[in-house]
Amino acid sequence: METLDGTEWDVVIVGTDLPQSLLALSLSRSGKRVLHIDRNEYYGGNEAALSLSEAEAWAARYAGHSNASENATFSNARIETLEATGDVKLLQSRAYSLALAPQIIYTQSKLLPALVSSRTHGQLEFQAVGSWFVLQPGGDAASAPSLIRVPSGREDIFQDQSFDLRAKRSLMKFLRFVGNYEEQPDIWQGEAERPFPDFLQQKFALPQPLHAALLSLTLALTPPAETSTADALPRIARHLRSIGLFGPGFGAVIPKWGGLAEIAQVACRAGAVGGAVYVLNKGIDHIDNTGNDTFRLKLSGGEQVETHWLVGSAENLLAKALTPPHAGPGLTKSISIIAARLPKLFPVTAEGGVTPAGAVIAVPASTADEPPVYIMAHSADAGECPSTQCVIYASVALPFDEGQARLSAAVAALLASGDGEMVSAPLWTIQYYQHDLGETAKALNPHCLVLPPLSLDNALADHVLENVKQAWRQITGEEDASFLRFEVREGMED
Amino acid sequence: MASHGVPRVSGTATTDKSAAARGEEQKQIAEYKALEKNVIDRIKAKDFSNHTFQATSRLLQQNPEYHTIWNYRRILLQDVFRRELASGNSAVITTQADEAQNGDAQAAFKAGLTLAQQEISLLLSEDLAFLIPLLKQYPKCYWIWNHRAWLLAEATELLPARTASQMWRGELALGSKMLVLDSRNFHAWSYRRSTVEQIEQLEKKSLAEDEFAYTTKMVNTNLSNFSAWHNRGQLLPRLSQERQATDEERKTMFDAELELITRALYTDPYDQSLWFYHQYLMSTLVAASSNDANDDARRTNILAAPISHATTTAYLEQEIASIEDMLDGAEDCKYIYQALLEYSQRLHQLAKGSSDIVEASKMASWLDEVRKLDLLREGRWLDLAVSLKP
Known about the structure:
The structure holds two protein chains of two kinds. By secondary structure, chain A is α+β, with helices and mostly antiparallel strands. Chain A has helices spanning 18-26, 52-61, 111-117, 154-159, 165-179, 185-188, 196-204, 208-218, 229-242, 260-273, 400-417, 463-476; strands spanning 8-14, 34-38, 49-50, 74-81, 98-99, 105-106, 126-136, 146-149, 252-255, 277-280, 284-289, 295-299, 304-312, 328-338, 358-363, 373-378, 390-396, 428-436, 448-450. Chain A has two domains: 1-49 and 258-324 and 440-494, 3-Layer(bba) Sandwich (FAD/NAD(P)-binding domain), CATH 3.50.50; 105-256 and 328-436, Guanine Nucleotide Dissociation Inhibitor, domain 1, CATH 1.10.405. Chain A is built from twelve helices and 19 strands. In chain A, α8 crosses α9 (229-242). Helix content of chain B is 74%, strand content 0%. Classes of the chains: A alpha+beta, B mainly alpha. Chain A: InterPro entries: FAD/NAD-bd_sf (IPR036188), GDP_dissociation_inhibitor (IPR018203), Mrs6 (IPR017230). Chain A: This is Rab proteins geranylgeranyltransferase. Chain A: It comes from Cryoendolithus antarcticus.
């Protein structure tokens, strides 16, 4: 087509973030005329994977201290680069694919079977997230912090020499309880609102040193004193029930080549194969609701298009069409490139098992009233950096000024904990703040669908798929059973 | 374990009852029956050609459970082997001129085999490879494993030890892969033991240390592995023999195993496989009375024979105390009470008259608890209660 001006569409999707991309995938066999645009010059939106130069441009764009004017998801971005010494240096920009969304995907997540049934999993490579650790400060100021592996099941507990027999027994009892906690409400429902560490102490006689380990399995962003039992139990259950589903020794995976961005790209590709038109560097300047469930849109190049359905996120659909979103507390985040392989973080976790490419490290604060830092470590096998390096993603639920200090300290402590491998500082670090634009934005027009952004959780939540399904159902009117269920295309292998 | 208790369904079974599906099915049945008739007729006519061999391959790929056809296949292979060996290709190639003859000869020379042996080795390897995709589809078909064992036995019989041992080593690796997929498959463990035995015979050395380390790895991956613990128990006495362990060293080994299993039991006293291993360890404490019995005991014991009453009594008392401790926090675990009752009874039998026995009131209370927890065996516990009464 020569120009978009004057074209008519069934659906216009704005932004190639993961929710919108999954919607495009779900519509790819529907025969609907879909136009999918993104204001950026890359796919993935808030879940994009960036090369070094893309990251620099991105940081310049989001460097401001507040997001109020742009209604943007990110702010406060800044980059720190270490002076190159000898061989230890950054490689060329394209050698890196840094993920804005390094969330892990639990094996029991509904997204994975949906990728299989929609015939897209063959284009994706998933790798195991193997070990969970807690980083504890050294005994005194002089000694290095220590990395303690968190037991994820009976065999881990059995082999761990640091617990005495009594502690092993109590921990096993707790894990057995969590296995089917829904059927034992008498044990925990009375304590549902109490802080989780108190529950552990009182109901299971688990001593304080074990609390950090169990809290790390929850991936809860709140401080321990504010993490309720009702919050913690389903999260730990999710963790334990996922282990072993795809193979021994791990319970979560990460997509190779740049986190969730890869899934967004594959979904868009499927959309394109299904006939959707993709245009990058294109946003919406003006939305006109003609009232007969048709929208007239003015795109950023001046083109006028018409569509029956308009789908996007709160951020990229203009404020005029929506009630203002409710901004919840956000996350201070960082991405660091490390000039070392850090093999101690990625051991094979079971006899005959896979070599993981991801690891989770929880760094508790010094008091129970402050939130923990979570570090997601990705080895070079994740395809995000050269083979001699690795990428460390860190996040903490604090405002930027406090948060960035905590993150720097946590990453430095992690690097100091490795005995033998002396790595003093990251080669390159970007720090930024991610706002939680929340889910409460509602469109004023029933044909304008708002897909909520991903939650700030470190693990992908299932509601992403639920939201996409709702939008798909409204657009196509089809039965739930056919959502993301496709036959293999002719001439293509599954 | 996901693969246990799942009924086997034929790969080609269909529940589609439409006329088209039925027609398709009839066609498949007719083709299959024709193939079957072809193979059987040829065998009856003693047609042991390659054509027949290929036909058995096609038939077995469709139905690997048809054991008669496996027998025919073996008859065919045996015939080929016999003809190879009789053909006069038994001289080992030594001269340059001979080598230059053909690629096969070169390969044979390199492997230190006669031309006949080279041929046989290739045929065996090809047949082993033929079985692999079948195994992937039907991992629990006895006849496939049977055929593998036969092929490897032929290798042992017809080929030099070094070549045969290589093939058996490959088999061990295959077994390990199968155990990664299903670590509790006792058939796989049994097959592993016979494979190890063959390698030990061919290479004239013991693999006990390696296998012992393997059981450690397997229980570390999954504590609840009856077969791994069983294998470990089988290896322990051999290990003490082979290490030529002194009495001190034997005691250290035994104590280490007790410590290991106690640690496992504290972690999970609800796992029956762990109790079986504990019982096994305690069962090796057989007090022997005559010299002949000493020698037998040496073969099955870990601790140095003779094992005195005092030693056995000491261990029983130690374990009873340790298991009693385990009750704390696991009062609803029937295995603990069962173990306490069993070892207490054993202690009584040994003590007979002396004063270091377990108080009757304690035993009665354990019996009460286990009766509440193990309602299925009410009769057994009633019998025990009666026999315990003074």
